[in-house]
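Support request, please re-run this one:
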Amino acid sequence: MSNVRTVGVFAGSLRSGSFSGRIADALVALAPVSLTLTRVEIGALPLYNQDLDTETPPATWVGFRERVRGLGAVLFVTPEYNRSVPAALKNALDVGSRPFGKNVWDRKPGAVVSVSPGSLGAFGANHHLRQVLVYLNVPTMQQPEAYWGHVAKAWDETGSLTPIMRELCQGFLASFAAWIELVGRG
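Re-run finished. Output below.
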C-alpha cells in the first residue's frame, strides 16, 4: 500500500456500551498498519434543518463537515432500528451531504458492518445504508459482506474479543484496506 489512510469510524448507536460502539472500538484497535482508524462521534449533531444551513450554520455541523472532509475513507458500524439505520446515523449522513453541491462524503471509499444480537445481523440496516451511500457517491466495499449476528457472543468472559471474532475483524479490515487502495487511486 502506498500510504497510510485515515478512516473515520461511525457507530450508529449512541448508547453507552452498545454492540456497534464496541465493535467500532475493536476495529479501531485492530487496524492494519496501512490504516489509521478513528472514531467520529455523531451524537451531538443537531438534527438537520435546512433553515439553519445559512452562511453561519451550527458550529457542530461545520466541525463535523471539516472532519469528514479530511478523511481518506469511511467505515460505518450500525445496528438495525425498524429495518433501517438509527436516526443519529442518518442525520450525520444528511449533515455531511448538505448544502447541495458540498457533499463531504463524495468519493470516499467506504464499508458497512451491521451488528445484531439476533441471527440476521441487521441485514435490513446494512442494505438500507448501502442505498443511501450510493446516492452520496461513496464507493462501498461489496465483499466481504459484514452482517454480524449474535454479536453479544463476540466477547469472552474477560471482555476480550473471541479468537473467531478477532479473526473476522482482521480479515474484514484487510479486505477494506485493499478496497481503499483500489478505489482511492481515482
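Residues 135 and 154 are 32 Å apart (CA to CA). The domain at 5-183 is CATH 3.40.50.360 (Rossmann fold).
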